[in-house]
Amino acid sequence: MPLNLPLVAPGSPGAELVVGQDGGAAVRRTVLPGGVRVLSEHMPGLRSATVGAWVGVGSRDETSGHFGSTHFLEHLLFKGTARRTAMDIAEAFDAVGGEANAATGKEHTCYYARVLDTDVPMAVDVIADMVTSARLDVDELETERGVILEELAMNDDDPSDVAHEQFATAVFGDTPLGRPIGGTPQAIRSVPRDAVWEHYREHYRPDTLVVTAAGGVDHDALCAQVEAALTAGGWALDPGSAPAGRRAAGTTGPVPSGTELTVRRPTEQANVIVGGTCLNATDDRRFVLSVLTAALGGGMSSRLFQEIREKRGLAYSTYAFASGHADAGLFGLYAGCTPAKVDEVTALMVVELERMADTPMGAAELARSIGQLCGGLVLGMEETGARMSRLGKAELVHGELLDVDESLARIRSVTAQQVQDLAGELAAAPRSVVRVGPFGD
């Protein structure tokens, strides 16, 4: 059964939860003073652990004058605190063979580290120090401004990255979800230190913080370490404070009815994506969408791979993808091909989607797609980072945690009729097309 994750104050019913998992693992959740949420999954026999600090703020939360601040903070939190220099932070993880990194999304930011189980206290202390006490030094900020601009330039040199970024903009238009996660070069060049500081102080608070850990970790010790580290960082942890509410649906704003966009790049190959909006992250049909995506373009036996690559030799890479946010989702079909073949390949991708909408999947194809998803899910859960991320997304996005068996059961319950019905919705929806390549006027 799903583990519901209520947003309650410390000491309230539901503030302490525990549930058994597969393989003898156990998930525990505690709401600490200040509304800080701590979730851990103890995995017997592992000598390593991955620890993450999640803040429920992403690029879509930036306001005018603050664009680019979320990605800026991802970089700047590694550049020193009141107690540590940037070198101190780097050396702390290098000295124990650990790995530390961060990721910015449209709706959340995560700072994480993978270390030996004996080094979890160090990882918690360093990450909590970064989250609570970043200096955002002016000189470091200006240095990192150049680093981020180089990162954006690197991404702009990858036509596949350009296609995916422009596709999100084409589908969501001039809305917060349509903005690039990393910010634009113009935004990064212009955002002042005061704006980044204001963004940091507004969003990095005890009630928005979620700490997750998986692997060789003791939950009670983890909670004590988190509370001590946050207090040492100067955060006031009010015993009566409840966690901040989860992101509400229905705030995307107007979405275009379908856009065609061509981006000119001097490449040998063209990249094309066709698709549009789809389910949000909490829609009950997200498991149906997963099966649909797997059948359409999830592996070597998928329809896109067989029709476009194997039968016609028109592309090396082709696949389907989907992503969900609180109030909207994105669905697309991708291929990389010779520029002269773009129209033919695009038409074939659309044909395959429409064929899935017109005719139910056969039993063998349905079983194969479900088996692919189930195997990928179980194999992915062998890694502590994946389990840590699962806990963070369950807390911030879904409000419930599904164990592996429940997730497998929901995938296996998907029917051919459900897939056909959803394919029909996607095929009938407004369609956007983005092409990146050496096209003329």
Can you give a write-up of this model?
By secondary structure, the chain is an alpha+beta fold. It has two domains: about 5-230, Cytochrome Bc1 Complex, Chain A, domain 1; about 260-435, 2-Layer Sandwich (Cytochrome Bc1 Complex, Chain A, domain 1). The chain is built from 15 helices and 14 strands. The protein has a seven-stranded mixed beta sheet with strand order 2-3-4-8-5-7-6, with helices on both faces. A five-stranded mixed beta sheet has the order 9-14-10-12-11, sandwiched between helices. The protein is globular and about 60 Å long. The relative contact order is 0.16.
Mean pLDDT over the residues: 95
Task: Give the N-to-C terminal Cα separation.
Answer: 56 Å
Main sheet: strands, sense, barrel: 7 strands, mixed
State the helix count: 15
Task: Identify the CATH class of the largest domain.
Answer: Alpha Beta
Determine the strand fraction and express it as a percent band.
15-25%
What CATH architecture label of the largest domain applies? 2-Layer Sandwich
Rg over alpha carbons: 23 Å
Q: How many separate structural domains?
A: 2
Helix content: 40-55%
User: What is the fold named in CATH at topology level of the largest domain?
Assistant: Cytochrome Bc1 Complex, Chain A, domain 1
Which class of secondary structure composition applies to the elements?
A: alpha+beta
